[in-house]
Amino acid sequence: MTTPQEELLPATRRALLHRIAVAQAEGRAPSLVAAVVRDGRAVWHGARTSVEGHEPDHTVQYRIGSITKTFTAVLVMRLRDEGLLGLGDPLEKHLPGTGAGEATIAELLAHTAGLAAETPGPWWERTSGTLRPELSDVLGEQPFLHPVGRRHHYSNPGYTLLGALVEQLRGTSWEEALRREVLEPLGLDRTSVRPSAPHAGGWAVHPWADVLLPEPAEDLGRMAPAGQLWSTTADLARFAAFLVRGDERVLSSASLREMRTPAAPAEAVDVLSGDAYGLGLQLQHRHGRLLVGHSGSLPGFLANVSISVADDVAAVVLANCTSGPSVSAVAADLVRIVAEAEPRIPAAWRPMREVEPAALELAGPWYWGTHPFALRLTADGLASLEPLSGNGRRSRFRPNGDGTWTGLEGYYAGELLKAVRRPDGSVSHLDLGSFVFTRQPYDETAPVPGGVDPEGWRGIG
Prior knowledge:
By secondary structure, the protein is α+β, with helices and mostly antiparallel strands. The protein contains 13 helices and 19 strands. Helix 1 runs antiparallel to helix 12 (327-341) and helix 2 (67-81) packs parallel to helix 6.
């Protein structure tokens, strides 16, 4: 996925290189590679290494750890979109006998199933998957640590269950389903379950001396859907673009938008730090912008994909060390550097192709009590209702084809907006989930709940 480096300004490219150079040097990483995606394609690649003359490029594989979970989540969402399962279905309905069957599919995706973070026995990331041949070996005798659905508790075994669910419903291995349904359609030919040359070796860096220790690269067996994959900056750049735009051969943009929506109750510390979790995707508030993606780590490797959908900029950062640079902070900085140095140029404004007179009649100012709002019709066929004061509830609405509209976000998500007309056909008011919006504050000609004082507005003499 090579593109001309000139697509970014020289000062931007230097700032990106400086950031990863500082990360590699101060983080003491044997190597660190990065890529930036803008407008759906890679526009920059950078690398720093401790081995002179062997700088890795965009084709070199690194282990990506828990970024694998996002791939597994895509497979599960495909099953949902095909009608083979519902996100609210208990696992037991499709994969009986696990001992964790009361958890729903959505709860497993969002890490709210109450399952333990790790497996029983020796650390699964540094031991062979042959030690855990069955799901019972992954879950143990008491898989639940918390009530189902009550809190976000990151769980690697939960994604092992989702991988097993994919195998059950597809009748094939998780690896084969991933290759056939995601990797091949998206052209991710350098993403694989096992390493394929050229690939980086995993290292531990001594905390108090500049010396290295090789880390084992175990096959994780049953735990593969939680963290097995190897990939490259080029492949992950393509994957990041897909996570924003979708690809009808794999998953629609609407389903990906659902994955990017917070789905887990946040702990107090998460509220303070600006972190949340969707369906297989992490959400973070960094530098004043919302980033979605996922981080990953396995002994010898660190990885991160961060995407600012609003800026249409993404970053991939991979390193081959057990601990070292904060790759999530580096990725967030790469996004910030490009977004601030070369702000996204918006598409040209264009008018609507056509508009229904009945819809146009609703445009303009409305009042909820004394709060002024504006209803606008936009060229994408939607309507927006926003407070004119800048404070208050706002939402976009999609038309239902019968003169009503359904809220898409915020307080009004799923709520019905409809124009209520008088016998002569003129609009009396808007009804939004029982809220009455009128053309004048507390319009006495509209059925304002509680009525309007018959003496009307007055001063205090």
